[in-house]
């Protein structure tokens, strides 16, 4: 069993609440637009970090992280990409991969819109954790915690970071 902390779109903003809410987590996954190596390093110093770079991330973060990150967590095939869209409207840059070889869990950021939705067509859970940073038009900053045990997802929690 692994408890995962998921965030996106920090845009170089650091909040100590990340560590508070991710305390019970075994890993942290960042879906891009990290914004600074400092944010990535602070998260990685706290828990193992899996991340992708986003469209706003510079060369230093693009050297640290891939554009797409596909891996196994427990028995779940996971794919993370910053610009990914959502069920029924996947981004053309990932649509072919998703339809040819769908993961069980697809995580994307970019839109700053919190969304947790099951895609019946592809048989996958899609998560966009919204935006954890301050830059952007979103009204609430959000994180997600999720437990993965074997091939099951449980305890999906949306956390709002009230300022």
How would you describe the overall organization of this protein?
It is a single chain. The relative contact order is 0.21. The mean pLDDT is 97. The chain is built from 4 helices and 12 strands, in the order E-H-E-H-E-H-E-E-E-E-H-E-E-E-E-E. The chain has a 5-stranded mixed β-sheet with strand order 3-2-1-11-12. It is an alpha/beta fold. The longest helix is centred in the N-terminal third of the chain and has 10 residues.
Report low-confidence residues grouped into runs of 5 or more.
Answer: none
Task: Tell me about the largest β-sheet.
Answer: 5 strands, mixed
Measured distance between first and last alpha carbons: 32 Å
Helix content, binned percent: 10-25%
Global mean pLDDT: 97
Radius of gyration from the alpha-carbon trace, in angstroms: 14 Å
Number of helices: 4
Beta-strand residue fraction: 35-45%
Shape: globular
The helix/strand series, from N terminus to C terminus, equals: EHEHEHEEEEHEEEEE
Instruction: Indicate the structural class.
Output: alpha/beta
Number of strands: 12
Please list the strands of the largest sheet in the order they lie side by side: 3-2-1-11-12
Q: Determine the oligomeric state from the structure.
A: single chain
Features:
37% strand, alpha/beta, 163 residues, globular, 4 helices
Fold topology:
Blueprint: E1 2-7, H1 17-22, E2 27-30, H2 37-46, E3 49-51, H3 59-64, E4 68-73, E5 76-81, E6 85-86, E7 89-90, H4 92-100, E8 105-107, E9 114-119, E10 124-129, E11 142-149, E12 152-160
Parallel strand pairs: 1-2, 2-3, 5-8, 8-10
Antiparallel strand pairs: 1-11, 4-5, 6-7, 9-10, 11-12
